[in-house]
Design brief:
The complex is a heterodimer of chains A (about 500) and B (about 325).
Chain A (H helix, E strand, L loop, with lengths): L19 H20 L2 H12 L1 H17 L4 H37 L2 H5 L5 H33 L8 H27 L4 H7 L1 H20 L10 H24 L2 H6 L7 H13 E2 L4 E2 L3 H15 L1 H23 L20 H9 L4 H20 L6 H4 L1 H16 L7 H28 L10 H33 L1 H9 L2
Helix pairs in contact in A: 1-6, 2-4, 2-6, 3-4, 3-6, 4-6, 4-7, 6-7, 7-10, 12-20, 13-20, 14-18, 14-19, 16-19, 16-20, 19-20, 19-21
Chain B lengths: L1 E10 L2 E11 L4 E5 L6 H8 L7 E6 L2 E2 L4 H6 L1 E4 L11 H11 L4 H14 L15 H13 L5 E5 L7 H16 L3 E5 L3 H7 L2 E6 L2 E6 L1 H9 L3 E6 L6 H5 L4 E5 L3 E5 L3 H14 L4 E7 L3 H17 L7
Parallel strand pairs in B: 3-8, 3-9, 6-7, 7-8
Antiparallel strand pairs in B: 1-2, 1-4, 4-5, 9-10, 11-13, 11-14, 12-13
Helix pairs in contact in B: 3-4, 8-11
The chains are: A mainly alpha (about 500), B alpha/beta (about 325).
């Protein structure tokens, strides 16, 4: 190949990169254009104006009527609680438009084929994503804040003379904002994975239904919360705001990783070919080495393929181990709290309890012995894996670590009652030496299945990355987790009771 | 200026582009020819750093398409297959927006916009919403957008497909002018006459693979033979064909004409004419019979099919 002499463009193109300021400045170029475009669309402007300037007066009229009506029956508390509730509704209606704009902004552009010229510019994926997301939020949020202001003004200046508690107003404004953020960031994820507005609208029900449920919950809290009149706002609403902020962060991360040129242009049709997908998964499960050749023997598979999948799980396994440790410590800390202490007999001899070990096992795991233990562990790990997929991996780190929290708590109670907590060690360690690593691997698989979609490895789409994670999970379940659970259960039913009995002298 | 080494793109099990290598120096025009679905647009997208190659590498304007994607896109002007204009905007706003994206100062983007709109005869529509533009006007505006930041490399997908002959001529002239200014072009087109007119080199792509490449003359020689000439004389030929056989290969003859192939017409034809005139043969005309890119293209595709290139090699 010949050497290439680079002649720069006649007009110098500045490529200042990697600072937040530059990213935001570039994103704002997109935002300005998008907002201007939205404000030229009567389908967006019409509802926004109506919801900003017309709907608040309806809400205020309704509040007036309700106040008068319930006052006749001495139930003024209903009116008092309805007024802030209506403030929330006045704020929520306009932000529902943000969903429409977000879906239209992304998938609409794809449909109109206007996205490719934009993707061919030096703007980064993050700049495009941030610029478009902010653009989808600005008009509805302005309408929402405008509507709430109009409603509050009409209340303050109207016959009700209602003065809103500052904390509650701040909460409602924040709730409205995080709800808009959740809807827009969720819509971005949906629109980047679909090829038509029709399919995006259908999938948007995955946002609308939970959000509707959330509004119900918030309404119930506003009516029923014992701290509804608190000047600092309602505690449960603060918790919801915090929870939704975490969801926003996760969705932002997910949105940023799925909003990439490859995904947007590579996907041409929405089609499902499950047979092909399962074939690919099975191929990866059997694959040995980088070229994906199938293993020729079970030994070869165990020697090369399984370690490769374990290697890909390193990060997730590290996080899981830390969370297990944290859960154990949390169990100890909780156990030390006086209000959580168990009334165990102090310093009693444990020798006489040894004979009851078998009965206790039967009570916990039923009469099925090892099979019951395997089924119990399988149920928990399967549930954690399933929920992890829909919670960006977080539920994997909630469900299984609970066991370690309980162990930490029980050990503390043992120690506080004057027993040697080391006595518990053989009861756990004999089978735990296999079971704990197996559970750690299974939890790490679940964590990765959920978390990988928020940041797929470089040069991989979300779908490809998830398929690899799923294939690894299947491989590790077949190769390590299921055999490990069976072996640990056999030890737990046959060996552990004998060891514990021997140690306790029973 | 454009250098690709075994560029490959897979979509799952489908290989859209298969080990394509290109080397286009500054100031050259490479025309990519091929049927729909051959992989031309995928190549353009990889060279614009919009798609990441599965295998192989490419450098555009000196920047690697994977590691310096933003630099590549800053130095490339792209006319996409779909023009993708924002129909509620006016041309002046539209170009201003893209000028901002390329970080052009306000006065410069205004000047460049006006100059280019004038060059392509669109000044009258500067303040018209793009939704009201005709198809040809939209294509010209998309071309203006691609040229706005005066990039050293332009990747144009079907640049004149929707244009009337006059507009297409304007675009071709603009390309030739920019080529003189050492701008490099990669053009995909189905318009073979236009390709022949503009191309410094041609690559014919089929099912993701380049099946022939070179200058038009090279390709014509390789696939349809040496240039074909037609000689007409006054009266009968009287065995002229056999007398010329030491210099040229006679392909066909009639009562007062014959056609021959010659490897180096510039050298051979003057000698031949000298000999004929010396022998007193009344030559009426000697002219090349035009070989078109269409002949070459069809021959290349036919040969590839015969070699088995028609089997579904798109599947890995």
């Amino acid at each position: 190949m010949t050497n290439i002499s680079v002649s720069g463009p006649a007009i110098p193109v500045s490529l200042e990169r990697s600072s937040l300021g530059v990213t935001l400045r570039n994103a704002m170029i997109i935002t300005r254009r998008e907002v201007r475009d939205s404000l030229r669309d009567w389908r967006i402007i019409g509802p926004i104006l109506a919801l900003t300037f017309f709907f608040p007066f309806i809400a205020q009229f309704f509040a007036n009527q309700l106040t008068g009506f319930v006052a006749n029956y001495g139930a003024s508390i209903i009116a008092d609680r309805s007024i802030p509730f209506l403030l929330m509704i006045v704020g929520f209606f306009p932000i529902s438009i943000s969903l429409v704009i977000a879906l239209e902004t992304f998938v609409g552009e794809k449909e109109r084929r206007t996205l490719e010229p934009l993707l061919s510019t030096p703007l980064t994926n993050t700049e495009l994503y941030v610029g478009k997301s902010v653009a989808a939020m600005i008009p509805p949020l302005l309408a929402s804040y405008g509507g709430m202001s109009v409603y509050l003004m009409s209340l303050v200046l109207g016959s009700l003379q209602w003065r809103p508690p500052g904390g509650l107003v701040v909460q409602i404004v924040l709730l409205t904002t995080v709800q808009a953020l959740v809807m827009v960031t969720g819509a971005v994820v949906i629109s980047s994975q679909t090829t038509s507005t029709r399919s995006a609208n259908l999938l948007a029900s995955f946002i609308i239904i939970p959000m509707a449920g959330m509004i119900w919950l918030e309404s119930a809290i506003m009516f029923l919360a014992p701290d509804a009149e608190s000047p600092n706002g309602i505690g449960a609403l603060w918790a919801i705001i915090a929870g939704m902020s975490v969801v926003v962060l996760l969705l932002l991360r997910l949105g940023n990783s799925v909003f990439n040129r490859e995904e947007l242009l590579g996907r041409q049709i929405d089609s499902i070919d499950l047979r092909r997908w399962f074939r690919r998964v099975w191929r990866q499960v059997r694959a040995v080495g980088g070229k994906g050749l199938p293993a020729t023997s079970p030994w070869g598979w165990y020697r090369h393929s399984v370690p490769a999948s374990l290697g890909r799980l390193k990060g997730a396994a590290g996080v899981t181990a830390l969370v297990f440790l944290a859960a154990l410590i949390a169990g100890v800390v909780i156990g030390l709290q006086p209000q959580w202490r168990l009334p165990l007999p102090q310093g009693a001899s444990l020798t006489h309890t040894a004979g009851g070990i078998g009965d206790a096992s039967a009570l916990v795991f039923g009469s099925g012995g090892a099979l019951s233990i395997v089924m119990q562990n399988w149920r928990i790990l399967a549930l954690a894996s399933l929920l992890a997929v829909f919670s960006f991996g977080s539920m994997a780190l909630v469900i299984t670590p609970m066991v370690y929290l309980v162990i930490g708590y029980v050990m503390t109670q043992f120690a506080l009652a004057g027993y040697n907590p080391a006595l518990l060690v053989p009861a756990l360690a004999v089978h735990g030496i296999i079971e704990i690593p197996v559970i750690l691997v299974a939890t790490a698989c679940a964590l990765k299945l959920g978390a990988v979609i928020t940041r797929p490895p470089k040069r991989q789409t979300v779908g490809q990355a998830w398929t690899v994670a799923f294939s690894d999970a299947v491989k590790l379940w077949l190769g390590i987790i299921l055999p490990g659970l069976v072996l640990a259960a056999l030890i737990e039913t046959c060996v552990t009771p004998a060891v514990v009995q021997a140690l306790l002298g029973g | 200026m454009i250098e690709a080494i075994r560029l490959t793109k897979d979509y799952d099990d489908f290989r859209a582009v298969d080990a394509v290598s290109l080397d286009v120096p500054a100031g050259a025009v490479l025309v990519l020819l091929g049927p729909n679905g051959a992989g031309k647009t995928t190549i353009v997208r990889m060279l614009t750093s919009v798609l990441t190659p599965t295998e192989g590498s490419a450098r555009v304007a000196g920047f690697d398409v994977v590691t310096h994607a933003a630099d590549v896109r800053a130095h490339v002007g792209v006319l996409t297959e779909q023009h993708g204009l924002y129909e509620r905007m006016k041309a002046v706003e539209y170009l201003d927006f893209f000028g901002q994206v390329y970080h052009m100062p306000a006065d410069l983007r205004r000047k460049r916009s006006l100059d280019l709109m004038d060059r392509f005869g669109l000044t009258f529509a500067l303040n018209k919403p793009l939704g009201e533009y005709s198809k040809g006007m939209k294509q010209k505006l998309a071309l203006v957008r691609a040229m706005l930041h005066d990039p050293p490399v332009l990747l144009l997908d079907e640049p004149t497909s929707a244009m009337d002959p006059q507009s297409a001529r304007l675009v071709r002239d603009a390309i030739v002018d920019m080529q003189r200014d050492q701008r490099t072009f990669l053009i995909t087109t189905h318009n073979l006459a236009e390709a022949q007119h503009l191309a410094s080199a041609i690559a014919i792509i089929r099912k993701g693979r380049i099946i022939a490449s070179g200058t038009f003359e090279d390709l014509a020689r390789q696939f349809v033979g040496d240039p074909l000439m037609e000689l007409r004389v006054q009266g009968e030929l009287n065995g002229l064909a056999s007398e010329m056989s030491d210099l040229v290969t006679v392909e066909d003859e009639g009562a007062n004409w014959l056609r021959y192939r010659v490897a180096r017409p510039v050298e051979t034809n003057p000698r031949l004419l000298q000999r004929l005139i010396g022998q007193g043969v009344p030559v009426v005309s000697l002219a090349p019979l035009s070989q078109t890119l269409e002949d070459v293209y069809l021959q290349v595709v036919e040969e590839d099919e015969a070699k088995g290139g028609d089997r579904d090699e798109h599947l890995r």
